[in-house]
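Sample A.
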Amino acid sequence: MSSDSNKKRKPKVIRTDGAPQESKRSKADPDQDVKYYSEEAEVELRDPNKDYELYKQTCQELQRLMAEIQDLKSKGSKDSAKQKVDAYHLQLQNLLYEVMHLQKEITKCLEFKSKHEEIDLVSVDEFYKEAPPEISKPDITLNEPHQQTLARLDWELEQRKRLAEKYKECLANKEKILKEIEVKKEYLSSLQPRLNSIMQASLPVQEYLFMPFDQAHKQYETARHLPPPLYVLFVQANAYGQACDKKLAVAIEGSVEEAKALYKPPEDSQDDESDSDAEEEQTTKRRRPTLGVQLDDKRKEMLKRHPLSVTIDLKCKDDSVLHLIFHYLINLNVMTVKTKVTTATEMTTPISAGDLLSPGSLLNCLYPGDHGRKTPNPANQFQFDKVGILTLSDYVTDLGHPYMWVQKLGGLHFPKDQPQHTVTADNSLSASHMEMTMKLLRTRLQSRLALHKQFASLEHGIVPVSSECQHLFPSKVVSRLVKWAALPYEDYLELSYTKDVVEAGLAEDTHLYYMALVERGTAKLQAAVVLNPGYSSMPPIFNLCLNWKGEKTNSNDDNIRAMESEVNVCYKELCGPRPGYQLLTNQLQRLCVVLDVYLETESHDTSVEGPKEFPQEKMCLRLVRGPNRMKPFKYNHPQGFFSHR
């Protein structure tokens, strides 16, 4: 290559003004310009032939290398190298997979749960205590937990085999017993008709021996349809009658079919609906019920009684009977009772004895304060407000009285601070009150019958005094009872000489009130009597007013107050033989006696001519005593004289 060609490769830049133009690169990099000009100088200094030879040698070397590369490619040496790499990579992948597999197996082993872990094995101490040595192998298992577990599993298997054998034996026994039961069932099914025929044939014997087994069985069949409170009353009254009171009779009355219908669900069907639609079409002209009629229907539904009732008959020694009919009000969840009295012989009814045996007052205040006018269930008042019922007392004539003792006999308890609509019947509550209540009922009937007989004599002016009580009075009593009549409660309140008793709270509208008039000559003694429903355990109370030489009462005459004290305070002397049913007549007789003493011990007015109106016939130690001029009203038997208390 010639130097001219080298010069053409590196032309110089000539400016238009004739001066050589410097390139931009030379301005930016002076060293580059130096190098450029040195290469030019080197080109001029080098030998072109040598450069050509160098170029030729270089091209030949490149050709040799390319041929060698071609030769290597043709021999496949590059592919064998890749195969080695692939083989090593595959071996690596295999090793990694094997490692991963081993890790999974290790995890499985660590997480493995054997079935024996779910078995509730016996404790180790119990195992060594109960298992035989050939299974427990204590010399081996005590030091090796694995062998110990295997031995415990063997013992568990042995026990289960024994239990399986026992289970098979029990199944066999069960099958045997079932067969025996089937045989006995067949025998019993054939026995029932025989028993029925025997019971039917034994009815005359039962009636003769007073052992009505058949009737009792029917009663208990009917009792299954009683509501819980009436059922508790029926069971407890029957039990008490059998154990303690042979004269108590219990029975169930009412319609069993109606009782069953109460628990039947309503039957709804499309046919019924169509029938009702047809009826509505036929009765379109009928007027709708008014609001008042609707309220009346709601009240009747609210006060609805259960179709079945329980009756208890209490017989007394004189063959009189107290009939108690217990009802259950379904929606109010309370019990009521209605009463009736039957006497052995027909009794004459005195006018003043009208309220003694009346159903409305016979059982008033059997327990103190229990008048039976209000419902004992606090929840009922909310029900009454919905249908416009003010109080239950307006309906007790038809429904009966809801006494508290009636609720307790039915096992019902109503807490005052916890109103409840649903109250359960408690057998223990009924049993705890049964005996005392029956005794109080019988006592109430006997006391009222005794008063009934006494009133018949009192209305005729006769004060009956039994022979056992004759010693309480002198042989001669001049004052006589001339009147005995019932007194309305309102009239009693208007009397001027009864205010102290009313203010003391001893006169209530549940009590009975009577007016007695005792006379001797011109003296007339009025006695207003308060008869407590609990007579004779609660004594009658007398208020006196003497009309003689003016009106004398306890407010203006100390001796009248002393006469009241003789009959009211000293009543225990007048009770007579137990149970003290003669107390009232003895008090009236004592009243006649003290009136005699009062009149006979009065001083005689000497200015009046003629004999003394009330001559002294009673023997008195002292006529008067003290500044109040108190008279001797106490009678001393058997001496027969009167003294001061």
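Sample B.
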Amino acid sequence: MNTSSFCGSHLFLSLPDDVLSIISRYLQPIDIYHVSLCCRSLQTLALSEKLWLIQCQILSLLTPHDLLKWRSSLSSYKSLYKFLSTIKPLLGLWVHQNPELGNVVYTMLGFVSLVGCRIIPQELGERGIDDSPLLWAPVFEIIAKSDGSAVFFLHGREKDADFFYPGMLNSVDVNCNVLLLEVNPRKDQKNENKHVLLHNSREICRSESSLSRSQSSLSRSRRVVEAAAMAAVRTGAEMRVPFGRLAFGDRRRLLELVANQVRLKVPESLDCSPLFPRCKEDLGILLDRRLSLIEMYMVREGWFEWVGEFGLYLDGTHLELSKMKKIVDRPGSWNLNLNGEEGEGNNSQNTRRRTVAGYFRDGLNQILGRSNSVNRRREISKNGISSSENKHVPLHEFLRVGDGVGLSLRAVNMKLSTYRAWPNMHDNRFALYKLPLRAPMNGQEYAGLWGGTMGWPPGRPTEDKPGKALFFLLLSYEESEGQRLLIATKILEGTHYVLHPNGSAMFIVNVDEPSSDRFPWDTDGDSLRVEIQHAYSGEGIANGYGFRYPGSKPGSLFVAQNGLLAFVWKETRAVLTLQRLDLQELLKKGERVPPLPPIANFSYLTKSYSNVFAGFSSTTNCLSSSRQYYC
């Protein structure tokens, strides 16, 4: 047979399916897109279900059984890959400095979704970590639509009622380490497309006329494409004002104002529904819940509507934040000028409409007025302006680039400094910071997340202390002056009033220096003999130089045969016992409690040394005071 009549694509397509499957495992998604550009036959191959199933398997996020379940809710395996690849960088452990008792959020897979769960500071009962229900509260959800795009919901509680706060998953960096809650302006898609096309066409003409003779050899089509790309970049750079450039007060008030307007009350049918599968019976409930949430997100609710998954509409009229002019509302409301001017409307004929639409304008006007007055004061008295204040952008400049506003979640990579595995955080950002969870490996066998309690036997209450405070510790390795150190960083503390801040090192041991100390106990809580396999010398935290600078006292870390770790302070024989945690399984068996109000629920920026979660009736018995637990 003459093979000259066949192109390379025909030979490629003639390969058996098993061979194609093996080849596809060495391809990146970008390679598949490049293949689809070759010819129509390869384009069909690049859209095949089998090819994208393999890409989903390579991500290693779902079991084969779960892949089938998730695929049944989406249009294709390509859509499934799109969603999984988007949320994969968000999985893991996120923290914030405040409150000092712990702001720990663990993100895990739900059902065709990602769920962020806050771990509540708590004490354990008689059954220990494995058998005690772990208290948690929902923070946010990211749900996949049929095409694999993401829907974002913030959780919150106001006036004894739970609410959803819909928003947009703005962008996710594959190496993200900071998760930001923001308000973003957004143009109406139709108007934006017309504006960009007009702007770009003008830029193309200008670029065409200014091209140098050295570029004359380039084809006209290529020059047009390059000019369009350059114009688009310039347009985006000129129009975009980062949310972080606003003053902190403007950011806080704008977040609260928008959240108050976009909130959706949780229906009774979804009030007690699970967020992730705990058993087979939950799958049907989760399927109905997902469809209900997507419908709530897309369908107009009350006086506002999410159009293009972002723009905010009031009473069917887009709230035009980009145009610096008065917006005439229905009778009974007043006009808003984004320069801070107010105009009187007609006499009130509809109180309800003014209550819904007017309050948003009223609140926004107050923010703008406060922001503009601050800026005017800065212009009048330039000598007193600090460098940080001078960098702030007026609120009206931030808002004028869009026709609407809405909540957004953005995952970015920032250059952060750390101290003993704890990131140094900004005090005025509504953000969560990712903690790197290192998998155990040769030479770093104890790396990872551990849970612990004070006292021996581990996790068992005593007559004077009916409950044991639950600690979450991140164990990591660090080299210092030629020594390999194992550092146990505290990220959660289940007491009523904290003694040491988040990020404190509960103990530091030198893994290259064996300890000659003897473990003080011979048996555990089940009267079984304790066999110590390794012991290392180190120092444990102690009351010393104050809250931020605690002291330390010598001690030893013991490794038992059952995988337990125990750090014992040498002088007092106080002991902190640790065991590895599987947070996903603990949350599935845990107990859900109500969240905080929405913005504070994401990141609690108010400094607090007591337990801000102790007000919940369901957690009162688990959050009693227990201050004296170590030397």
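B remarks: The mean pLDDT is 75. The chain is about 30% helix and 25% strand.
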